[in-house]
Amino acid sequence: MVLPSRNNSSHPVSFILLGMPGLENAQFWIAFLFCAMYIVAILGNITLLHIIRIDHTLHEPMYLFLAMLAITDLVLPSSTQPKMLAIFWFHDHEIEYHACLIQVFFIHTFSSVESGVLMAMALDRYVAICFPLQHSSILTPSVVVKLGAVVLMRGLLWVSPFCFMVSRMPFCDSQVIPQSYCEHMAVLKLVCADTRVNRGYGLFVAFSVVGFDMTIITISYVMILRAVLRLPSGEASLKAFGTCASHICIILAFYIPAVFTFLTHRFGHHVPQVVHIMVANLYVLVPPMLNPIIYGVRTKQIRDRVVQGCCGKDL
User: Strands 94-96, 14-17: parallel, antiparallel or unpaired by DSSP?
Assistant: First the structure.
């Protein structure tokens, strides 16, 4: 493997992405699994968006947030998978410097957006279950759009400094990233300068985004649980639990690998590298793949539309 050359500035022309160190002999076959998951994620989220777009009965806050989630789940894996598959199948390990920073930007921005949308969906469930009569007046379409815009702007404004600060720092001679894609901490480890400000800002972003969103989600579901347990009808309680169960599964599928990857980068020096890299790869694939499947199975309106489409009926 030939290392890329360095230009006249303080940064290299490109980096080398190793893929999955320790699993080099299995990468070719693992790529088929990742490719299949990526295809399921793309087809599932496009189908979800199409159904929500054409069915006007689904133009409600829950489904509008679900559409935002689907868009995010199209962008997030698409920012990593094409290059990852090129590494695994064609040994195309080199990534241009600016392309690497663009990948950092998209991965972290849309991870933040996904977290924000999950938080907004938890608020929607809270209002729908605890204040059902006021739900339509509290979460109007304009409020939903504004919430989505705030979540997107938060991701853009919080993550942009990552790329700006890194781009102004000198890099060491080592240009090898022992992962399948570029992300902030992996790139920061190649910098030959004091990175305490960058690391501190990274912690601030993590706690202000994930910490805030998880707090709101936890409070929302504690209040939902209290409200559900007070319902006089057991059938109504089961229906309310069922409505929230799919959302809780999505939350766990997103946050568990996200928190694991974040902590491993900073504190998990004894975690085997192959475990860290595998979880990091699955983190950008599993939630986007599971979201349309879980919501499609759990949501009757979406399930019926899919069945109609499969049976050849006019959607």
Answer: antiparallel
